[in-house]
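Hi there,

I know you've been waiting on this one. I reran it after we fixed the sequence typo, so this is the corrected version. Both the input and the resulting structure follow.
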Amino acid sequence: MFKLGINFEACFPNEERSTLEEYLSGIDKSDLLKMGSFFLGFNTEKSRYSDIIHFLQMYFSSENSDFAQTIYSNILQYVENESYPLSFYEVPYPVSSLRLFEFIFDHIPDEQETTKTNQEIEQDTFKAYVLLNQITITERDIKSTQIREENNLAFTAAQALLQISFHNNDIINFRVEKLYECQFKRALFYFEFLSEREDCQALLEAFYAHYEVADYKDYLKRLFGIVQAVLMMDKESHVEIHLEEQESMAFIDKHVASVDESITEVDFLKVRSNPLYKFEEDKYRIISPLFTIEMIYNGLFFRLKAINNQLPNTDKVTGFYNLKTYQFSEQYVLSKLLKEIYGNRYIQKSGSVLDGVMDGAPDYYMRNGKYIHIYESKDILISKESKQSFDYRDLENELKIKLFENENGSPKAVRQLVETIRKILNGEVIYDPNIPLTRVQIFPILILHYRMFNAAGLNNVINTWFVSELTRLRDLGLDISRVHDLVIIDVETLMFNKDALIKRKITIQNALLEYEKYYLRFNLANARPRPRSQEEVNKLIENSLLPFSFYIDNKIEKLGYQRSGKDLLEKASVLFEEE
């Protein structure tokens, strides 16, 4: 359920707020860091502490019972004047938790000692947290609204929701089991891909030497030792790792945030890279469970890139970024996944095959009779400046540059898909000359490779560009009536649901049709049961803007499919094979 953060003014309506420095003064830094990692240990979904009463009961001791009761009364009064009921509000907010930890790590002096009483510590640290909620949620919304009003900007429901959701979507919306499975598989695929290339051998050898491991299997096994602490969490709290072996400590030290450098970044880039910190000689604490899992694959490219940059020119892998985004992500991973899902049925052409046949071909092509699926794959990221900007136009401009048309006017994913559709409808596709043009139905699919793009509203915004561009074909006299809406699928969702798709619990074809009908072409007039209030209307519209990942993950589970993890176990078994 959609949640709203409780801010400072809700808890202390008549109190002038102080600064984070003041609230966090007089408290030992190690205790503050422990508290910061405690907040980051809360579940992002179905947390016990999402309930405000449970949170206040957990956070405050009996000596602060009157203080906590006053806060609760203030919150009830605040909610009475807002649009949503109390059940929509909670105190913990992952972005505030990350900013709290970073502030403590960077700005609290190492020598700071405790001078406040326990009663004062509970009150002041709570105030610090809800102050961050005020800054990261309430004031962000105020600034965004101000920009919109000053520039007379009118947003569609999809644009409005995208502005609200995109900047924090990858931090607050994830499933641990899905994240771990896909991060592990992608890391394994990446190492296998690099190992098959002669020009990457020097890089891999330098990587193994730096981390003091025998090979990538040894590296992933040791990394699993770190991540396992997150997977085995049995309560919502901070996670500690205690080690005795010097070898393990040397390995984990290379993944630790250093006290010698600041970790504050607009989008938490340094915490993503080093999501642990060392608090005693042989003891470590996980800063972010999310970033700890994501360092398996998401952080791997950046660790390899750093080592590649230090290699002599004769050993350096040239075009290392393009190697990853194009040859690995777009050709190796996507082709492997789709070939497994579609099996040996239908007409299928991978991007590497098509590139040798025709310029401007899609990254993958499948035809089953009159049904064609065309894929464009883009392994891209959005800059932290655009992602975190208060001005929605910054985000949409960068999305257009990377997914519609770049600064030089070169077509990107949306325009590339439309051009492929033009060629199909004109009978120009030489790699499949037997298309039944009078009956053909075309499904355009955009594959993206990072979870940040699973933001509510994004598919609808991109599809609007696609539909607008598609009308150019109609103006050319082409029949576009059997061209379907563009659907965005992130590669991890494809990977996570691969077995269910192979077993045809649901087909890609039917999933695309259903998502198009009930989401991209949602019509309030057809809603059953009929909404009885504006709140129910808003909820239906909001649900219709959810990403394909949300739809397909839940759809497959509602169909009764039980994910066995068999594919993951088979992939992981290679780490333990005897050489």
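Quick highlight: The CA atoms of residues 273 and 302 lie 8 Å apart.

Best,
R. S.
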